[in-house]
Write a structure and sequence with these properties.
- It is built from ten helices and nine strands.
- By secondary structure, it is of the alpha/beta class.
- The protein folds into two domains: 135 residues, Rossmann fold (3-Layer(aba) Sandwich), CATH 3.40.50.1370; 146 residues, Aspartate/ornithine carbamoyltransferase (Rossmann fold).
- The protein has a five-stranded parallel β-sheet, with helices on both faces.
- The longest helix is centred in the C-terminal third of the chain and has 20 residues.
- The protein is globular and about 55 Å long.
- The structure holds phosphoric acid mono(formamide)ester.
- The site of phosphoric acid mono(formamide)ester has 9 residues, from α2.
């Protein structure tokens, strides 16, 4: 039995193990399991929540969804006590999305004695999205080693960047970032970023693949951009930039149309967004199987 809270805890062998299970599932070889899985979603989500729910059912297990308004956390129960309650109720795993950072987490993982799977904790981690992005790029390139991947946009608040970039580095990819300086973290060097591009067009010329990130409107507190229109013109995927892209582009979703990406280009022939969404079910089924198997 394992938990998955941060990609920083995964070795190359762990990641290959999960990806190989995902490939088998994609080829129709799905493992079967029994028991109950709680989906504790205290923040909105479409693709992560629904694909985890489908993954649980695919394995033959039963999902129980609890949202912020239906959990006793609204009456003051702590997150830790909520997790322990699921463990006492006999659940085998809790998949959680929360608006705060879970760190440190080892004590809770040990005390609960069940699998805890992070589906997004504030700006900290979103490990299954990182695995989806690595899997999707690996399918397209065959191998990400030495591929240049550019992340564009709101790096500061992005749990996707903090999950996808370390996984790509683990497999030898080269990382660049571009965005308003106000949305680039001061400690960007800890992610072993090769280049910070103030001019996104230079970054696009450098990159083999580009991952546009969502401008996290709900987390902007200090007017870090002047306007959505100017942000789009400076860093968004416009028609002109789309023509210059050498390879594919991705976006973890949900997309802010005409802020992150021109609405007419979201599903263009250079887009891997549909693949990311579809691979979500395979990766999340594989993660559950890896954690509980
Ligand atoms: N990418 C992602 O986490 O999307 P949702 O918020 O819809 O789950």
């Amino acid at each position: 039995m394992r938990s998955l809270i941060s990609v920083r805890d995964l070795t190359r062998d762990d990641v290959m193990g999960i990806i190989n299970i995902a490939k088998d599932i994609k080829n129709g070889k799905t493992p079967r399991m029994d028991g109950d899985v709680a989906l504790l979603f205290l923040e909105p989500s479409t693709r992560t929540r629904i694909s985890f729910e489908k993954a649980v059912r695919t394995l033959g297990m039963t999902p129980y969804t609890v949202t912020d308004s239906t959990s006793s956390m609204v009456k003051g129960e702590s997150f830790q006590d909520t997790i322990l309650t699921f463990a006492f109720l006999g659940f085998r795993a809790v998949v959680f999305r929360i608006p705060f950072t879970l760190f440190p987490y080892e004590d809770l993982v040990n005390r609960s004695g069940i699998s805890l799977i992070n589906a997004g904790d504030s700006s900290h981690q979103h490990p299954t999205q990182g695995l989806i992005d690595l899997f999707t790029l690996t399918e397209s390139f065959g191998d990400v080693e030495n591929r240049r991947v550019l992340f564009v946009g709101d790096i500061l608040y992005s749990r996707v960047f903090r999950s996808t970039a370390p996984l790509l580095k683990l497999f030898g990819a080269r990382i660049g970032v571009s965005g308003p300086r106000t949305l680039i973290p001061r400690d960007i060097h800890v992610f072993e970023v090769e280049k910070v591009f103030d001019d996104v067009d230079e970054g696009i010329e450098w990159a083999d693949a580009v991952i546009w990130l969502r401008l996290q409107k709900e987390r902007q507190r200090d007017n870090l951009i002047s306007s959505e229109k100017s942000y789009f013109m400076q860093f968004g995927l416009t028609e002109e930039r789309h023509k210059k892209l050498k390879g594919y582009f991705m976006h973890p979703g949900p997309v802010n149309r005409n802020v992150d990406i021109d609405g007419d280009l979201i599903y263009s022939e250079k887009s891997l967004i549909k693949d990311q969404v579809r691979n979500g079910i395979f990766i999340r089924t594989a993660v559950l199987s890896w954690c509980l198997g």
